[in-house]
Amino acid sequence: MLIAAVADVFSPRYYMEFLKALEDFNQKPDLFIIAGDMVYQNNFEEYVKIKNALMGKIFCPIIATIGNNEEEIEDKLKEEIKEIRFLNDQSIILTINYREVGIFASIGIVDEPTSYMRKKYANPEMLMEQRAIKMHKNLIRLKTRYRILVTHFAPTFKTLEGENPAFYKQLGSLKAEKIIIETKPDLVIHATATRGKKFAWVDTVPVFNVSFPLNKEIVLIDTEELKPGLEKFV
């Protein structure tokens, strides 16, 4: 199975670079994943531009989660952009190449809520705990032959290497890493770490950081090549 993935375009900031990357992308993926923050500061019109660009190039199912720059337009995205399936703390099962693929997607959790979160939410710690419970339960319940976890925030500190360590807890979560170790999804895709690492193993689980400012391209993942010890993606 070929999976294409991207995040953190922050359109209009990296929109033109994203268009060029999409133009240069000559693969035919079976699944396209968006890990959030495709636009900057809840700009719905910019997301329409992103959608239009994808519709001329991508002809497989597109699954997206919400980034922190899209929380205020989440309902509008779900209601008006039907070509993309938006999930936030939700699961979906797709049949791809005659194989059932289960996906749980979420904005994700952080170990230390930011000042923005503390202003926005009455109890951000409780919110993070609720999201963690949903993540764990959904990954356990997905009994498909292949399971994918998609989060916006980094679900491990391993792909945060390159970022300022003082902000690791506000960018990602060791609690989420523990969930990965306990539930063993086949693949994890995330964003947020714009200066982090592109790839890491969490136990035997491959984790891809598909942030566009870091990768400068649409990330292509061939699931048949993902075996513990592989270093080509590092």
Structure description:
By secondary structure, the chain is of the alpha/beta class. The protein has one domain (2-225): Purple Acid Phosphatase, chain A, domain 2 (4-Layer Sandwich). Helices cover 30% and strands 23% of the residues. It contains eight helices and eleven strands. The strands form two sheets. A six-stranded mixed sheet has the order 5-6-7-8-10-9. A five-stranded mixed sheet has the order 4-3-2-1-11, with helices on one face. The longest helix has 18 residues, at 124-141.
Topology:
Blueprint: E1 2-6, H1 15-24, E2 31-34, H2 44-55, E3 62-65, H3 74-80, E4 85-87, E5 90-96, E6 99-106, H4 115-120, H5 124-141, E7 146-151, H6 168-171, H7 174-183, E8 187-190, E9 199-202, E10 205-209, H8 212-215, E11 219-222
Parallel strand pairs: 1-2, 2-3, 3-4, 6-7, 7-8, 8-10
Antiparallel strand pairs: 1-11, 5-6, 9-10
Distinct helical segment count: 8
- Under CATH, the topology is which? Purple Acid Phosphatase, chain A, domain 2
Beta-strand percentage range: 15-25%
Number of strands: 11
The unreliable regions are 230-234
CATH superfamily: Metallo-dependent phosphatases
- Largest beta sheet: what is the strand line-up? 5-6-7-8-10-9
Q: Work out the radius of gyration.
A: 16 Å
Number of domains: 1
- Largest β-sheet summary: 6 strands, mixed
Helix and strand run? EHEHEHEEEHHEHHEEEHE
Which of globular, elongated, flat, extended, rod-shaped describes the shape?
globular
Structural class by SSE content: alpha/beta
- The percent range for helix content is 25-40%
Query: What is the mean pLDDT?
Result: 95
- Top CATH class: Alpha Beta
